[in-house]
Amino acid sequence: MVNASFVNVGRWSALGLGVLYGFTHNRSLHKLESKNKVEQEYERKERLIEQARLEYAKKHFKPTSSEALVTDVDSPDFDFEKFIAHLESQDKQ
Protein backbone atom coordinates (compact mmCIF):
# COMPACT_ATOMS: atom_id res chain seq x y z
CA MET A 1 0.00 0.00 0.00
CA VAL A 2 0.87 3.66 -0.37
CA ASN A 3 2.15 5.51 2.61
CA ALA A 4 -0.47 7.81 4.23
CA SER A 5 1.86 10.81 4.05
CA PHE A 6 2.01 10.48 0.23
CA VAL A 7 -1.77 10.44 0.08
CA ASN A 8 -1.98 13.55 2.27
CA VAL A 9 0.63 15.36 0.15
CA GLY A 10 -1.34 14.47 -2.98
CA ARG A 11 -4.60 15.72 -1.50
CA TRP A 12 -3.11 18.99 -0.26
CA SER A 13 -1.36 19.51 -3.61
CA ALA A 14 -4.63 18.98 -5.48
CA LEU A 15 -6.39 21.40 -3.12
CA GLY A 16 -3.67 24.03 -3.57
CA LEU A 17 -3.70 23.68 -7.34
CA GLY A 18 -7.50 23.91 -7.39
CA VAL A 19 -7.44 27.11 -5.32
CA LEU A 20 -4.71 28.58 -7.53
CA TYR A 21 -6.66 27.69 -10.70
CA GLY A 22 -9.85 29.19 -9.26
CA PHE A 23 -8.05 32.41 -8.36
CA THR A 24 -6.47 32.85 -11.81
CA HIS A 25 -9.69 31.92 -13.63
CA ASN A 26 -11.66 34.42 -11.53
CA ARG A 27 -9.13 37.15 -12.35
CA SER A 28 -9.35 36.44 -16.06
CA LEU A 29 -13.15 36.56 -15.95
CA HIS A 30 -13.10 39.91 -14.14
CA LYS A 31 -10.66 41.35 -16.69
CA LEU A 32 -12.84 40.15 -19.54
CA GLU A 33 -15.94 41.64 -17.94
CA SER A 34 -14.30 45.02 -17.39
CA LYS A 35 -13.03 45.02 -20.99
CA ASN A 36 -16.55 44.26 -22.26
CA LYS A 37 -17.99 47.08 -20.15
CA VAL A 38 -15.50 49.55 -21.62
CA GLU A 39 -16.31 48.40 -25.18
CA GLN A 40 -20.06 48.62 -24.58
CA GLU A 41 -19.71 52.12 -23.15
CA TYR A 42 -17.64 53.17 -26.16
CA GLU A 43 -20.23 51.77 -28.58
CA ARG A 44 -23.03 53.50 -26.67
CA LYS A 45 -21.20 56.82 -26.97
CA GLU A 46 -20.65 56.24 -30.68
CA ARG A 47 -24.38 55.66 -31.17
CA LEU A 48 -25.22 58.82 -29.22
CA ILE A 49 -22.78 60.87 -31.28
CA GLU A 50 -24.22 59.49 -34.51
CA GLN A 51 -27.77 60.29 -33.38
CA ALA A 52 -26.74 63.80 -32.39
CA ARG A 53 -25.02 64.30 -35.72
CA LEU A 54 -28.13 63.22 -37.61
CA GLU A 55 -30.39 65.48 -35.53
CA TYR A 56 -28.02 68.41 -36.11
CA ALA A 57 -28.07 67.75 -39.84
CA LYS A 58 -31.88 67.67 -39.84
CA LYS A 59 -32.13 71.01 -38.05
CA HIS A 60 -29.40 72.97 -39.82
CA PHE A 61 -29.36 71.73 -43.39
CA LYS A 62 -32.36 72.12 -45.61
CA PRO A 63 -32.91 69.31 -48.08
CA THR A 64 -32.15 70.16 -51.67
CA SER A 65 -35.07 70.20 -54.05
CA SER A 66 -35.33 67.44 -56.62
CA GLU A 67 -35.14 70.09 -59.36
CA ALA A 68 -31.77 71.47 -58.31
CA LEU A 69 -28.78 70.10 -60.17
CA VAL A 70 -25.54 69.64 -58.27
CA THR A 71 -22.61 69.85 -60.66
CA ASP A 72 -19.83 69.51 -58.10
CA VAL A 73 -18.49 65.97 -58.51
CA ASP A 74 -17.00 65.92 -55.00
CA SER A 75 -20.32 66.80 -53.37
CA PRO A 76 -22.13 63.96 -51.58
CA ASP A 77 -25.38 65.16 -53.22
CA PHE A 78 -24.01 64.73 -56.75
CA ASP A 79 -26.25 62.50 -58.87
CA PHE A 80 -24.53 61.30 -62.03
CA GLU A 81 -27.76 60.21 -63.71
CA LYS A 82 -29.36 63.65 -63.25
CA PHE A 83 -26.20 65.29 -64.57
CA ILE A 84 -26.19 63.12 -67.72
CA ALA A 85 -29.91 63.71 -68.25
CA HIS A 86 -29.32 67.46 -67.92
CA LEU A 87 -26.51 67.35 -70.50
CA GLU A 88 -28.67 65.32 -72.90
CA SER A 89 -31.55 67.77 -72.56
CA GLN A 90 -29.17 70.66 -73.34
CA ASP A 91 -27.86 68.85 -76.42
CA LYS A 92 -31.40 68.37 -77.76
CA GLN A 93 -32.16 72.06 -77.47
UniProtKB/TrEMBL annotation:
Biological processes per GO annotation: proton motive force-driven ATP synthesis
UniProt cross-references to InterPro entries, sorted A to Z: ATP_synth_F0_esu_mt
Localization in the cell: Mitochondrion inner membrane
GO terms for MF: proton transmembrane transporter activity
Keywords linked to the UniProt accession: ATP synthesis, CF(0), Hydrogen ion transport, Ion transport, Membrane, Mitochondrion, Mitochondrion inner membrane, Transport
Keyword Ion transport: yes
One GO CC annotation: mitochondrial inner membrane
Subunit structure of this chain's protein: F-type ATPases have 2 components, CF(1) - the catalytic core - and CF(0) - the membrane proton channel. CF(1) and CF(0) have multiple subunits.
Protein task: Subunit e, of the mitochondrial membrane ATP synthase complex (F(1)F(0) ATP synthase or Complex V) that produces ATP from ADP in the presence of a proton gradient across the membrane which is generated by electron transport complexes of the respiratory chain. ATP synthase complex consist of a soluble F(1) head domain - the catalytic core - and a membrane F(1) domain - the membrane proton channel. These two domains are linked by a central stalk rotating inside the F(1) region and a stationary peripheral stalk.
The family this protein is said to belong to: Belongs to the ATPase e subunit family.
Name of the protein in its database record: ATP synthase F(0) complex subunit e, mitochondrial
